[in-house]
Amino acid sequence: MQAVRYAMRADLEDHRATFSNAMHDYEDQLYEADHAEFVTPETMAKLPPLSPENGRPALLRGHGSNRTAGILLIHGFSASPGEVMPLAKTLNGQGFTVYVVRLRGHGTSPYDLQQRTWQDWYDSVLRGYAYLRTITEVQFAGGMSTGGGLALHLAVHEPTVQGVFAAAAPIKLTNRAIHFAPIVKTVRGFVNSNPGNPNTNYTAFPVQALQELLQFISVYTKTLQNVAVPTLLIQARGDTTVRPDSAQYIYDELGTEDKQLIWKDVDRHVIVSDDFPDVHDDILTFLQNHQPSL
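^ Serine aminopeptidase S33 domain-containing protein, sequence as received from the core. Prediction below:
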């Protein structure tokens, strides 16, 4: 990761194509290796994996005048790139280049997630952003739920991020039992999640991963005042996973003056599917309003 961080700050012109191809291939190979290790007949008999169709990272190359603007799109906790693919296709339909990153431990099997830390997730974001920088001139970052939190964290540490958007970024969770994860871990290894879309989200996730999520929330919460780029927050008033007042807390803590919080009167957590074209439109408007002239 030290080499990736250096490359993100270096002049890549002389080696742009080589670095770009290597980064793209590395993420594909990493997915294949994780899938092969954790999606086995033994694990499949216990907990269902996610299909490669939803689990792989994905690049949607841009076109037209927006093609040089890149968007790093980040899925949520215990989910997969497939969770945010509807939004990715909408953004790409307007010409933007979109890279949908796969957070390590996700998109394969819950047993994979059991082996990962939140730093592994953030390293996935850093690699994805480094890759996006090799193929675009301007970069935005955004995500769903934990993916939104990771996008905000990235914006603190990478000054080249042009703007950030987050849907249902977590600070407080609706299930108070989650905060007892360290105790529950001694009793059982996994928790049933009953996701809205079992094709893109694990139907159970490891208690250890809940601990990692809580640790990440604690870390990124402390850095919100250092977010200095334009920021869009979108939150459902009836969110069933993240307490809606999380959005107001983030908004109040953000260091940037260029910030917007949009409320949605729906009782859903994942609001980036095709069921929410208004959310897609809000994000498109934000991107168009903050894209510099190249």
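The first helix runs from residue 2 to 9.
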